[in-house]
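Tokens for chain A. Residues wanted.
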């Protein structure tokens, strides 16, 4: 079984040649000094070394041993704590945090590349630090001075890990149903009571403290989302005493066995408010948005790990002669020469490369949104991040699962048994379609919350931007068709107030998101092709042959839905 190994040069190519990160970052005064290609490449290479040497070797045993619960404590699989201690002490969590908080102030896109590699190598382990940066940003934007003084540096450096405590047994996608109560205490703090489920990393032995960010309801709060406030409660308080937060059990799951998915009970746990009362979801969105991009990167990484395994196997395994083969070597050809196997491998390559272009671009846009001197450019960046993040989260996690399954097919019966480790990727990848807002919720977010309210103005501006850069006539024609559809069908389904006038957009949402994903992929291919300048062969041909035709199908499905509505 071959463990995943990062190819730093492939990541650097997308970042430096396709996206021209140097020129982009040079426009941002806060980051210009970190724009040198040598520096960016060096960080990516060092990240690759850590991931390949430390994390990849722990993946298989982590899956087999899993996280272990005993009397409220959770022991992580062998080597996991040491790896985490080495990780934060080497400064990896602090890459993109502000220098004044103990961070390194480097571009966000380096953290994106790192997270893609971490997830590819060891999804279970990466679940723990996966929430760290979001928690840091959340407290940086919404925490009081006292809260920031207590937690910001510990989260920036990664010395302490963080959780996101939203879900309850009866409240999943609908967080407005959250019941956990927050009772004011005389000293200005609050006592939290309730049960949260499915909390990733709610308890473990990776770090010496765990910082829980918890959605709860104040006594006089109105029902629904507007009654939610955000609180912070640590596992250990400053005086060393343990909080009244208990891990009741961990879930038995289909995959990511190394990640403890915890049922957490809060028994009057002493907490501090983050942000304003009733604005909890607002504050939490900072964390959730960061996590959504990371889950999209998770999809790309998991697909890459599965493709690496399948490619190595396909070059090794020999069965029958490939069509047109003149080979006299051995009794049969490598299955990598059979068109059916090539199709599987090249299709995943097309998804990975375009996913990287889009995800790294989104990470660059996050920095532009924060640091660009021109307000119009900042607004355009905010538009890109808002519209592209749900697409990345949804389409690339779906592909991670279906693509990992296709990679398993390359192994035939050997893929279905554990020996080669490919089945772990299929099991692990499935959850990324569910958490951080299910893929259905992402589609509704894109169409109903982000496209209808402004009469599709933001989306049309994004489509115009894609059209400027799309040389391929197929992509240009498709962009026009989609624009026309947006203009006439979607906007017609909107009331003057900007909400859906019928249930029609809800029926369209999934196809709408997929069609936009394909348009974005087509744009990404035109950028890759321009950077390769007609040189080495790419998976571009595979994209146009086997992936792109889905665009037509999605448009037809949407036309049918409208005709029936
Ligand atoms: C391994 C794992 C780790 C997790 N980690 C965390 C964590 O760290 N913190 C945390 O708070 N939560 C976590 N979760 C919870 C996760 O975010 C929820 O499972 C998810 O939000 C869905 O909620 P639910 O499971 O209650 O499903 P439901 O909300 O009950 O949804 C069931 C189905 O109905 C669909 N659906 C629901 N409402 C709508 C709608 N309005 N329109 C269209 N379709 C709809 C959903 O898409 C889904 O297909 C984790 C879950 C898992 C499995």
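Reply:
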């Amino acid at each position: 079984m071959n463990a995943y190994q990062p190819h730093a040069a492939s990541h650097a190519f997308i970042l430096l040649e396709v996206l021209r990160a140097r020129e982009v970052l040079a426009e941002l005064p806060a980051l210009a000094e970190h724009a040198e290609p040598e520096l960016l490449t060096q960080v990516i290479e060092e990240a690759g070394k850590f991931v390949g040497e430390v994390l990849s070797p722990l993946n298989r045993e982590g899956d087999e041993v899993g996280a272990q619960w005993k009397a409220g404590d959770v022991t992580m699989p062998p080597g996991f704590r040491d790896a985490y201690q080495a990780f934060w002490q080497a400064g990896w969590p602090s890459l993109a945090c502000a220098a004044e908080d103990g961070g390194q102030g480097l571009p966000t896109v380096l953290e994106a590349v790192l997270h893609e590699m971490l997830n590819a190598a060891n999804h279970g382990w990466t679940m723990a630090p996966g929430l760290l940066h979001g928690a840091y940003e959340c407290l940086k934007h919404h925490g009081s001075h006292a809260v920031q003084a207590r937690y910001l540096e510990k989260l920036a450096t990664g010395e302490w890990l963080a959780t996101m405590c939203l879900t309850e047994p009866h409240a999943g996608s609908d967080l407005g149903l959250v019941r956990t109560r927050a009772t004011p205490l005389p000293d200005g703090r609050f006592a939290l009571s309730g049960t949260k489920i499915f909390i990733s990393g709610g308890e473990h032995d990776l770090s010496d403290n765990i910082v829980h960010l918890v959605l709860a309801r104040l006594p006089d709060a109105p029902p629904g989302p507007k009654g939610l406030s955000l609180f912070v409660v640590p596992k250990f308080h400053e005086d060393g005493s343990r909080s009244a937060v208990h891990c009741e059990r961990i879930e038995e799951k289909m995959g990511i066995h190394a990640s403890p998915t915890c049922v957490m009970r809060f028994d009057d746990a002493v907490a501090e408010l983050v942000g304003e009362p009733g604005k909890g979801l607002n504050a939490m969105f900072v964390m959730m948005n960061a996590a959504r991009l990371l889950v999209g990167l998770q999809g790309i990484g998991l697909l890459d790990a599965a493709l690496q395994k399948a490619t190595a196997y396909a070059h090794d395994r020999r069965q029958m002669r490939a069509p047109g083969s003149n080979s006299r070597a051995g009794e049969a050809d490598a299955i990598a020469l059979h068109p059916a196997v090539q199709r599987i491998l090249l299709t995943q390559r097309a998804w990975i490369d375009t996913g990287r272009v889009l995800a790294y671009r989104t990470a660059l846009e996050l920095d532009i949104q924060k640091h660009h001197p021109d307000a119009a450019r900042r607004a355009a960046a905010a538009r890109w991040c808002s519209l592209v993040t749900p697409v990345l989260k949804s389409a690339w996690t779906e592909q991670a699962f279906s693509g990992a399954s296709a990679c398993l097919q390359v192994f035939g019966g050997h893929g279905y048994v554990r020996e080669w480790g490919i089945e772990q990727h299929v099991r692990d990848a499935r959850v990324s379609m569910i958490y951080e807002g299910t893929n259905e919720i992402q589609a509704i977010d894109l169409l109903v919350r982000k496209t209808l309210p402004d009469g599709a103005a933001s989306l049309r501006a994004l489509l115009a931007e894609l059209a400027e850069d799309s040389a391929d006539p197929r992509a240009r024609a498709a962009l026009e068709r989609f624009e026309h559809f947006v203009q006439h069908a979607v906007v017609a389904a909107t009331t003057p107030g900007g909400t859906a006038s019928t249930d029609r957009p809800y029926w369209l949402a999934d196809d709408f998101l997929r069609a936009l994903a394909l348009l974005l992929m087509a744009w990404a291919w035109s950028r890759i092709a321009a950077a390769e300048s007609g040189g080495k062969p790419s998976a571009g041909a595979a994209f146009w042959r086997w992936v792109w035709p889905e665009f037509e199908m999605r448009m037809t499905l949407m036309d049918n839905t409208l005709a029936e509505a």
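Residues 164-167, 172-173, 198-200, 253, 261, 431, 434-435, 438, 440-441, 444 surround flavin-adenine dinucleotide (CB under 6 Å). The first strand starts at residue 68 and ends at 70.
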